[in-house]
Amino acid sequence: MRPLARVDLNDLGSLVDWLVSQWWVWVIVGAIVLIFLVIWIMPAAKVKPSEKFSTTDREANEIALGFLQIRNLPSGPWNDPTASDLTSGEKEVLVEQWGVHTRQDWLDNIERLTTVRRRREVWVLYLAVRTELAERLGRAPKAREWLSAIVDQGGNKRDARTFVTSIEYVEGQVRKLVGKDIVTPDVFVKTLDGYALGQAVAMATWGVALGHGDVAEAREIIHRINVEGRPAFSSWADFGLSYIAGRALHWTDGNVEEKSFEKFGDGWSDFKAAATEKRNGPWATLSWSL
């Protein structure tokens, strides 16, 4: 290995010569800086819908409820009810993971997601306490206020604290990553149903790709999911936050921290895309009210 040249820090000429001799270091540093500049300057990718299907009518509005789950797989453009991007191998995995071997399996899965909604009774109770308290206070309750209210109603303080902390952590991360202009302070988790409802819409499209139903039936199912599910939410941001929180809480058994959020809360990037008009996000232009 070539020995490093000695540098006399009191000799300007010696110092300059040494810096010049390290040209390869500056090339590497320059390349790294350039990469970061390009990433920072380049505009974020736009959401690309399918040209075969509408992006502005009621049907587009309804299928947009499944945006996060459709993008999570991914199974195709958000407005495509046929899940056209699924390969044969991905379809096989989908069938095994969800147990949708038959048409009835497909319908049963949708029914489960739209009724049971991956709910856990104690979590539903905790969130009901929060919602009731928020109505009384006229704002989102602080963690200590929420926890105290849960305990006052007979809840287990230790279990409740883990849940409350996890919900607030998810809210804080999503607000920071998606943007406070999108997930405003008045938007907070009142239900975790968004996750199951988003999955139900996506499942309706996957059934078309698997041959369990046609587009007309999928549209009808998606319409029903929207009619039954939307009243629990006030906006796209409210729904998106519920989906992210629901997914993270479900897969971590209610205990979300930094590493688990990175794994199960990664849908925040799709949330941001969906809610950004400059990126052609459908949630930014479609009305929440049908």
What does it look like?
The protein is mainly α and 290 residues long. 63% of the residues lie in helices and 0% in strands. It has 2 domains: 12-41; 47-290, no CATH class. It has helices at 12-21, 23-41, 58-63, 67-72, 88-98, 103-115, 121-137, 143-152, 157-178, 193-210, 215-229, 236-252, 258-264, 268-274, 282-285. Residues 37-42 have low confidence and may be disordered.
Quaternary status: single chain
Q: What's the shape?
A: globular
Specify the biggest β-sheet: none
The class by helix and strand makeup works out as mainly alpha
Order of helices and strands: HHHHHHHHHHHHHHH
Overall residue-averaged pLDDT value: 91
Number of strands: 0
- Straight-line distance between termini: 71 Å
State the share of residues found in helices, binned by percent: 55-70%
Domains counted in the coordinates: how many?
2
Classify the beta-strand content into a percent band. under 5%
Poorly predicted runs of 5 or more residues: 37-42
Provide the descriptors you would attach to this structure in a database record.
single chain, 290 residues, mainly alpha, 2 domains, 63% helix
Task: Describe the secondary structure blueprint for this structure.
Layout: H1 12-21, H2 23-41, H3 58-63, H4 67-72, H5 88-98, H6 103-115, H7 121-137, H8 143-152, H9 157-178, H10 193-210, H11 215-229, H12 236-252, H13 258-264, H14 268-274, H15 282-285
Helix pairs in contact: 6-10, 7-8, 8-9, 9-12, 10-11, 10-12, 12-13
State the gist of this model.
The protein folds into 2 domains: 12-41; 47-290, no CATH class. The protein is mostly helical.
